[in-house]
Specification:
The complex is a heterodimer of chains A (about 180) and B (about 280). In chain A, about 70% of the residues lie in helices and about 0% in strands. Chain A has about 180 residues and is mainly alpha-helical. Chain B is built from five helices and twelve strands. Classes of the chains: A mainly alpha (about 180), B alpha+beta (about 280).
Chain lengths: ~180, ~280
């Protein structure tokens, strides 16, 4: 009973941590573009949770965050659902290794999340274009500067996001995880 | 095997892919549907975003007063000079208008004009990703805003077109967004063209005119207006000014780069055209 309550509180805290990131992004960071790009924080949050909790919980958290992102961000499409699920799932593999639950592990998983997100977007827009009016995909020369600027901007948040979720994990982990 | 799938989250990935497929098909079949989750979040966040926008505007005003006072003084002097020029032109125009009315009455011609029904809105949020140029505004379907309504500045410059409508919010694409498509007219030459944009143009804060005839002869500064063709949008709204004529990489087609008339990064209050009458 106690452990079950502890789990619920921990996952509520993870959800609230993401809501905090969402508010910071929409109300603050989206007003401060970097080379015309805005940061993408969802994969960083999912990677951090995957690192601390493992593959299955990471994938579920990624599915929820991806669904939320696709619902609230205009024209983000449904691409973020599989991307965030894969990031959470693969980040979870690190928990069984020495690198698991460390800053290095979190940063590497977050960086992987950013790369996967940008690579997927560039690949998708390059192959299929952005809208129905375009008969062909968009040139890589056009896509890459935006993707690189977005990746660089997002990378600035690797450590802050990791430490935010580390604080949640350290404060709310259940007895069996101690 | 079952445990392997569960422990590694493979089942979740399969569910994610299935959900992606269902949502993709749903959005393709029902393109005008605003997702319920998106609507609820918009309802909750719009008042907060409105407050934050007002606070940010107040801070920006303070910053401008403290650190950009000289620049603002120069702008004011320039604006006063422009106002004097416009007043002079207005006096000349009033004479021409009186003469025009006199001739119109003599020839029994019907006056061409566009009547607009406007609704004021506040910009509450900018683009949410790097791949779009959108603005969220503070009113939605409960105020009568619908998809396809055009949005203009107080000075009548076209800002964009509403694309998604929630209960008390709406999201519009601006005229530099890659998805924009508006029939336009170059005032000096009378050519009817299409206003479009792409990622390259969007990054430069520009849009472009396409489907140019072979003999177009635009010059820098030519005014671009909405044509009102098909009756989808009002006619005569100022979109921007031609900057240059360019050729596509293949060299087969030409397009004109347009500098938007509206300052898209300095918008506070806008007006949604909820009704119009292109006479």
């Amino acid at each position: 009973m106690g452990r079950n309550n502890g789990e619920q509180i921990k996952w509520t805290a993870y959800a609230l941590a993401y809501v905090l990131l969402f508010l910071l992004k929409t109300l603050l960071f989206n007003r401060i573009p970097f080379h015309g790009a805005l940061p993408e924080l969802a994969p960083l949050a999912v990677a951090a949770v995957g690192c601390f909790e493992g593959s299955f919980p990471g994938a579920v958290y990624g599915l929820a965050v991806g669904f939320f992102s696709s619902a609230v961000y205009y024209r983000s499409g449904t691409m973020m659902i599989p991307i965030c699920t894969i990031v959470g799932m693969l980040s979870g593999f690190t928990t069984r290794r020495q690198i698991g639950k460390t800053v290095l592990g979190g940063v590497l998983c977050g960086a992987f999340g950013i790369l996967l997100t940008e690579a997927s977007r560039v690949g998708f827009y390059h192959m299929l274009g952005m809208n129905l009016r375009q008969s062909a995909g968009i040139a890589l020369d056009t896509l890459m500067p935006i993707a690189i600027a977005e990746a660089e901007y997002s990378a600035l948040f690797l450590l802050p996001v990791f430490y935010l979720f580390a604080a949640v994990y350290n404060n709310f982990r259940t007895d069996t995880e101690l | 095997m079952k445990n392997y799938f569960h422990e590694n989250g493979i089942w979740v990935l399969i569910v994610a892919l299935a959900l992606t497929g269902v949502l993709t098909i749903t959005s393709a079949v029902l393109p005008n549907l605003t997702s319920p989750l998106s609507n609820v979040l918009g309802i909750v966040s719009t008042p907060v975003q409105g407050t934050v926008s007002s606070f940010a505007g107040w801070l920006e005003g303070l910053y401008n007063y403290a650190f950009r006072y000289d620049q603002m003084s120069e702008k004011l002097a320039l604006a006063e000079q422009e106002l004097a020029d416009v007043r002079s032109q207005l006096r000349e125009a009033q004479d021409a208008l009186a003469e025009n009315e006199h001739l119109r009455a003599a020839l029994n011609l019907v006056e061409e004009k566009t009547d607009l029904t406007l609704m004021d809105v506040k910009v509450t949020e900018g683009s949410s990703t790097s791949w779009e140029s959108t603005l969220q505004i503070s009113k939605g379907s409960n105020a009568g805003i619908k998809k396809g309504d055009v949005v203009i500045t107080g000075t009548g410059y076209l800002v964009g077109v509403v694309q998604e409508v929630g209960t008390n919010w709406a999201r519009m694409i601006t005229i530099i967004d890659p998805n924009i498509s508006v029939s336009a007219n170059v005032y000096r030459t009378g050519d009817t063209v299409m206003l479009e944009s792409d990622l390259d143009m969007m990054q430069q804060g520009r849009c472009k005119l396409t489907y140019l005839g072979e003999d177009v002869s635009f010059i820098s500064g030519d005014e671009v207006l909405t044509s009102g063709a098909n009756g989808t949008y009002p006619s005569g709204l100022v979109i921007g000014y031609v900057e240059s004529l360019q050729a596509t990489p293949s060299g087969l087609e030409r397009y004109a780069v347009v500098q938007p008339a509206a300052q898209l990064d300095e918008l506070g209050t806008l007006f949604v055209v909820t009704g119009f009458d292109n006479d």
